[in-house]
Design a protein that fits this description.
eight-stranded mixed β-sheet
Length: 495
């Protein structure tokens, strides 16, 4: 893995080549000044040259910090308005299109998914679309076959079409649970125009994010279903990627994450009320009007009388909607480690995302997000939250419902932490992992972070590199760690 210093030197050389006119004018100005020919022209050249020369290291530092995923203690979150729990993930995404008041929210299961097109131009390292949070260029076009659940006794039905899926919401497709807005048929109510994706408008801040479009809605389902519109922010809640909690009037807090039936009913109440603000991942009934709070309370009492089981992390049939391999992003690997880095005390730790906020800047392999990462140092110091703008690979975002963990390479003195996306993606299951034992037996480890993580830390502790998703213990350089690796594999419970 490249170092921060190496990245800075590379950017410095590149910037110096691009801004070579600055030093040239500076030298020319100095020569004119000492020659005494034209002091006025010399001052102009000196000013232009000095400005251009100073720009070189400043631009190199800025571009390196923007492109290199390093976290330092200067990135500590200082103005956190909400203190998140360790298992919280708040995602602030673009809003879905508004529908007519007579449209109905329903659950849809993803039966099949396939990537149709994702083709950014690739000309710029970073591309900013001012005011547009979901430009078509950076929003994958995915063909989905959905089974839309019927409501109030209506029959389920299937729909197949292509949707622009915001990259932050890809995990809802992989998880297999979506929220859709079923429009009434033209003969039974107002028709809605075709929709190809979410509106290009940001959601509210972390203390003002909403799980519903701010339009009034009827509680009656349409008699005949018409057009179906995907509701991507709500789908993140239903899929369990974004956590959801409810604080009732007695200050009792209930976790409703991955309770799809209750979540869908809450969304309908929220939509009928014109939108309900979430504080972080929590709906506080004390902040709602009495009528809406009463409806939430009545729903909670019904659920308490007939408890709902927690839905699985991923619905059955994941292989038919697995688009992760087609999305850009780092290939998972056990990682590269330097012996010098390891001997001086460098090591790996696992951190966790607790907040992701969309921006209007993108790279070809993923969106640039404002993130809050909870870092747990291994030296026993208290954990801290770091606020850092990072590019998250699309293939990682597609499995975000499984894990929010991210692997960090810690500098020997613990002064900085570098996000290691290849290791993170292997741990998350983006890339299939396996181990080849000294007797040539192949052991698949995909979906076994409990085994992959200790093997990664073992390699890092010995300064050994395995820049592939396969750890081959037959290699001579792996001989010192082979007994320990086999002990790790033998001690794990079977699955």
């Amino acid at each position: 893995m490249r170092s921060y210093a190496g990245a800075f030197v590379g950017n410095l050389v590149f910037t110096a080549i691009c801004c070579v006119a600055g030093p040239f004018f500076l030298l020319m100005g100095l020569q004119m000044w000492h020659g005494g020919t034209d002091r006025g022209a010399a001052l102009v050249c000196l000013g232009v040259g000095l400005a251009g020369t100073v720009t070189i290291p400043v631009a190199a530092y800025t571009s390196t910090r923007q492109g290199f995923p390093r976290i330092t203690r200067r990135d500590r979150a200082k103005d956190a308005r909400v203190r998140y729990d360790d298992d919280t993930l708040v995602m602030l995404t673009p809003e879905s299109p508004k529908g007519p008041a007579r449209a109905w929210l329903a659950r849809a299961d993803v039966l099949e998914a396939s990537l149709v097109r994702y083709s950014p131009d690739g000309e710029a390292t970073f591309t900013t679309h001012f005011g547009d949070y979901t430009p078509d260029e950076f929003t994958p076009l995915i063909r989905l076959r959905l089974r839309v659940h019927g409501v109030e006794g209506a029959d389920s039905f299937e729909v197949t079409r292509e949707w622009r899926v915001p990259s932050m919401c890809l995990s809802a497709v992989t998880a297999g649970r979506l929220v859709v807005l079923v429009h009434p048929a033209p003969s039974t109510g107002p028709a809605a125009g075709p929709s190809t994706g979410p509106a290009a408008r940001p959601a509210a801040g972390p203390s003002g994010s909403s799980d519903a479009a701010p339009d009034a809605a009827s509680d009656a389902a349409p008699a005949t279903p018409g057009e179906v519109t995907a509701q991507w922010p709500r789908s993140l809640l239903l899929a369990g990627t974004r956590t959801s909690r409810l604080l009732d009037l007695d200050r009792h807090r209930t976790d409703v994450t991955r309770r799809p039936g209750r979540l869908l009913e809450q969304m309908r109440i929220s939509r009928a009320a014109g939108g309900v603000v979430m504080t972080g991942d929590t709906i506080d009934l004390r902040r709602l009007d009495p009528h809406t709070a009463g409806r939430y309370t009545a729903l909670a009492e019904r659920i308490r009388a007939h408890p709902e089981d927690r839905a699985p992390v991923t619905e059955p049939g994941e292989e038919s909607r697995w688009i992760v391999d087609e999305l850009p992003g780092a290939t998972g690997e056990f990682g590269s480690s330097g012996r010098r880095w390891s001997r001086r005390g460098g090591h790996l730790i696992r951190a966790r995302f607790v907040e992701l906020r969309g921006t209007t800047t993108f790279q070809d392999h993923g969106p640039v997000l404002d993130t809050v990462v909870r870092v747990q140092p291994e030296d026993g110091t208290p954990p801290f939250d770091a606020a850092r703008r990072l590019t998250l690979p699309m293939n990682y975002l597609a499995v975000l419902h499984r894990t929010r963990d991210v692997v960090l390479c810690v500098a020997p003195r613990g002064t900085s932490y570098v996000v290691d996306w290849p290791r993170t993606n292997l741990l998350a299951g983006v890339t299939p992992a396996k181990v080849i034992t000294p007797d040539s037996a192949e052991l698949p480890l995909t979906g076994r972070p409990d085994l992959i993580w200790p093997l990664m830390t073992l390699l890092a502790a010995h300064g050994l590199s395995a820049p592939t998703p396969t750890l081959d213990l037959r290699r001579r350089r792996m001989a010192p760690i082979a007994p320990f690796a086999l002990r790790i594999l033998d001690s794990a419970p079977p699955r």
